[in-house]
Every structure is written in C-alpha cells, then in structure tokens.
Amino acid sequence: MRNLIKPLLAAILLVTLTACGSVPSATRSAMPDDTMLGTPLPPDVRIDSFTVNVPRSVKVNERNLYYPIGDIVWRGEPLGDRYQQVKAIFEAGLRDAATRIDGARPVRLDVQVMRFHALSEKARYTVGGVHDIEFRYRLVDVATGQPIGPSKEVSADLDALGGQDAMAAEGRGETQKVRIVAHLSKVFREELTVPGGHVTANLGLLQAINDL
Predict the structure, then answer these.
(1) How far apart are CA 104 and CA 48, in angstroms?
(2) Tens of pLDDT along 160-189?
(3) How far apart are CA 153 and CA 39, in angstroms?
(4) What residues contact 155, with CB distance under 8 A and at least 6 apart?
(5) Residue 142 φ then ψ, to 5°
(6) What predicted TM-score, i.e. pTM, was given to this entire model?
(7) Is residue 152 a contact partner of residue 60, using CB atoms and an 8 Å limit?
(8) Whether the Cβ atoms of residue 205 and residue 6 lie closer than 8 Å to each other
(9) Are residues 56 and 102 in contact, defined by beta-carbon separation less than 8 angstroms?
(10) Per-residue pLDDT for 13 more than 60?
(11) Which residues contact 47 (CB under 8 A, 6 or more apart)?
C-alpha cells in the first residue's frame, strides 16, 4: 500500500497544478486580446546600477522557533541590523548577476524586499525547510530615466538544508549566505534573460512527496 501512495500524490499534484494554471485571473488593466500576446520576451538590457530597499516596516523575528512569524528571519550572520544584512545579501546577488548579463540597453534595477524568511537555528539543525524570499523590482532606462514596463513581484524561494545536510554544506563552505547570494544572482539573471522570468517550484509539496 505504501508503494502506491507516492505515485498517487504525484498524480494529484500534477492535476492540481494543471487546474490552477488553467484558471484565468481578471485584472483592471487586462486588454481583450491579452491572451494572444504569448510569453513576453526578456528585455535586451544590462545592469548599469541598482538600488535595494529593505523597508523598516517589515517585521524582524529573532525567536528560536521552528517557524517564527515575521517578514525577516535571518540567522546566517551574527546578531545585528538584519535590515542591513539582508540588503547586503541582495546587493551581492545583484553584483554577481550584473557581471553575467550583457544586453545592449543599460538600466538601473530598483529592488524592494518584501520578505526574507530563512531558517531559525532550531529548524536549520533539525528539519530544514524553505528560504521564503519575495521582492519586487522595476527597470529604469539609464539614458531617459523612465521606467521600462511595470514593476514586478517575484517569489524566489530556495530549498533550505537542515540537519546533517546543513552541516555537510557548512563544511564545504556552502553557508546559508553563500547559497542565497548565488540563488538571487540566478533569479535576477533569469528575470532579465529568460522569457517569462524566474519560476519557483512548489517546494513544499514536492518535498512532501519525496519524503514518502
């Protein structure tokens, strides 16, 4: 019986995701022929400069629970100004991404962090989980100072290691900070070079199936 559970859940997940993807969503700005436009092509840009804003209105939680409630949960560095630490992580990811994008049009990339929920100590040293990262960004033409298209919200979740896997990664120099910086660089590159931008898998459901 146990051997049948995993294939059954996988089938249910596939049907669910397919159904969700087929439900249209209405917006005020939608045009009648929006569905005929297809996936937008990525802009032919390069990152000339960037700004990162981590608003003080987002909430930091330092409690060592399995899942602290808050917008910023970050324990990958010594206790300090978590807003500045998260800002520096995004800046490092953007600097790396900028060296790997070689489009024709120079742009400024303005980023606002909405959520940066990594793991507490308790979760990292036991069950692991997901680095829950959300941000919005806009592109601004350097020559004109005008925005290029609307701003966009991005979900940039990353599978978070736990227990022995986390310890082994630390031993290889793959700290939480190193992994997240590399991941953010990849997310920004995909946003600016891949049609449709970055896509995050449903990590929670997939992990549940894999654990069966």
Answers:
(1) 11
(2) 999 999 999 999 999 999 999 999 999 999
(3) 16
(4) 133, 134, 200
(5) -65, -40
(6) 0.78
(7) no
(8) no
(9) no
(10) no
(11) 94, 97, 98, 101, 107, 108, 109, 188, 192
